[in-house]
Every structure is written in C-alpha cells, then in structure tokens.
Design goal:
Number of helices: 10
Oligomer: single chain
Structural class: mainly alpha
Shape: globular
Radius of gyration: 21 Å
Number of strands: 6
Order of helices and strands: EEEHHHHHHEHHEEHH
Strand order of the largest sheet: 1-4
Largest sheet: 2 strands, parallel
Length: about 300
C-alpha cells in the first residue's frame, strides 16, 4: 500500500525569541502541558459546582480548592515525570551524567512517572485537607484525559515516540530525524504507524467520552473509586495495545532483541517497558471496579 500521510516539517518550537543571548522558546509539548492543566482545572471546578452528580449532593471539594490542588499536581507531575524517565528509561546515562537530570527543557518525561507523582501529590493534598481521596481521584481521572490527548498530538508534531515501519495506507512519512530512517531490511518508502495518534484517540478522546457518559448519564461519581478504576483499566489496556505498534526505545534494542523487549519470550514476542509499567494499572483498575461493584468503596478509602 502507498502511505497517504506525508508529514511536513514542523519546528518543535511554537515560537522563540533571543533575549540577552538566551534563546527563549515555547515548545509544542510544553504548550500541551499548559493547556491540558488549564482545561483539567476548569473542568474540575465545573464538577464541583454540580452537587447532583455526587453522593448526598456533596462534591468532594469546594469550587475554590481545585486551584490549590492544581499546584500540588503540577509539582508532582513534573518531578515524577522526570524521575520516571530517568529511572525507567535511561538510568545508566543519568548515573554517569547526574546534572543532566535537571535539564528538563531538553526533553525526557515518563507518563508512568508523572502519573505516580500525580498520585502522591493527590494523596498528600487530601490528607492535608481531609478531603475524600476516592472522589477527588475520580474527578482527576476524567479531567486528565484532554491533557493526555494534547500530549500525544504534541508527540506527533515533534516526531517523537513514533510507530514501527508499516505499509498500511495511513502510514506516516516523516520529513527527517530518526523517524525517517527505517532498518536496512525494510524495502520501499519508510512509513510508520502514527502510534502517537493511536494513543491520543484511545487514551484521550475515547476514554474522555466514555468516562463523561458514565458520569453525566449513569451517575458514576456517586460511587467513589469506580471512575478511577475504569481509568486505570482503560489507560493500561490502551497503552499495552498501542505498544505493539510503537517503535521501541533505542536503549533497549540489540541485535538479539530488535523490538526492545524488557522481558523477551522469543524474537517476536515479549513485553516492553511501557507494557510492564501499564500492567499494574490494569490490575489495580480491575480490583477497584470489583470492589466498588461489591459496595466496598468505604474500605478502599481507608
């Protein structure tokens, strides 16, 4: 098949200016974080102003508290995302170059690390303010989905986290960089799966629409932890699925392991780092769903 998407070159900088010898730039990925945080924050406030969505008509936070929570979350996401990338993906490099850890503007963030940072920040905030963790977690689970969508679109624009070579009709031909170079064994045009867009659609749009329907039409906010469980399960399954179309991280690739598996079963079967980190999310999601269906949400809170 002939690929139909020829991606033009788009600078990773939305715009940049020179100021006193310094190059100050706003990057697409940074912009996706900013817009994602703003959308999530405003949507969170809207939920807090709709008591009918909640058990006993009582939202977990006041409309003023999400702004405080956002500060905690931003710190948790940035620190967790960076440390997750360091530990899970390039530990050897950063042990040899520890100062590089602080150069976050050069890129390198891990979703699973950011998610862990978000969880820790939320737990600390809820403990500090004596807020119901389950209901706050449910609200965060649905309001992060626009940010997930925007982040993956930014990955696509930046030509990073691209997919494996393919000859499907919607394969993407990148204009340059590592994404434009396929293995020597690949014949024909070097086109790739737009795996970033697969994730944007599954983890972002689909999960957003599904959770929104369950909240607005089925009253799922009335049972704490249920939406959280569905988010954990949905994201985990989507990530595990898309990893089969995503180019493996180069630091895990070798001659004997061309697909970059962390656990290799055979030459063409195994588990990537992204899949291994997503598997606990699936397990926790199933556990939360099971317990909320059994009416044990109070015990989860404890």
């Amino acid at each position: 098949m002939t690929p139909t998407i020829i991606l033009p070159y788009i600078s990773p900088d939305l715009f940049s200016i020179e100021l006193y010898g310094l190059n100050l730039a706003i990057r697409w990925y940074a912009l996706s974080y900013i817009i994602g945080f703003l959308i999530g924050w405003r949507w969170f406030i809207i939920f807090m102003k709709k008591p009918a969505l909640w058990s006993n008509d009582k939202p977990p936070l006041t409309p003023e508290q999400p702004e405080q929570l956002l500060t905690w979350i931003i710190i948790g996401v940035i620190i967790g995302g960076r440390l997750g990338y360091v530990v899970f993906y390039r530990l050897g490099f950063f042990l040899e170059n520890p100062l590089e850890i602080f150069k976050v503007w050069t890129g390198g963030m891990s979703f699973h690390g950011a998610f862990a940072g978000l969880i820790i920040a939320t737990i600390l905030y809820c403990k500090r303010t004596n807020s119901p963790l389950g209901s706050v977690s449910d609200t965060i689970s649905i309001t992060v989905t626009p940010g997930l969508f925007l982040g993956r679109v930014a990955n696509f624009i930046n030509m990073e986290l691209y997919g494996r070579p393919t000859d499907i009709s919607w394969g993407v031909v990148y204009p340059g960089g590592p994404a434009a170079i396929c293995p020597d064994t690949w014949l024909g045009i070097c086109s790739r799966h737009p795996s970033q867009l697969y994730e944007a659609l599954l983890e972002g749009l689909l999960l957003c629409f599904l959770l929104s329907y369950l909240v607005y039409r089925r009253g799922y906010f009335k049972v704490p932890w249920r939406i959280s469980g569905l988010f954990f399960l949905g994201y985990g399954l989507a990530r595990i699925f898309v990893e089969y179309f995503r180019e493996p991280d180069p630091q895990f690739i070798s001659g004997d392991n061309p697909l970059g598996y962390i656990i290799q079963i055979s030459d063409w079967m195994g588990f990537t780092m992204g899949q291994l980190l997503s598997l606990p999310m699936v397990i926790v999601g199933l556990w939360l769903i099971f317990h909320t269906r059994k009416g044990n949400d109070a015990s989860i809170e404890k």
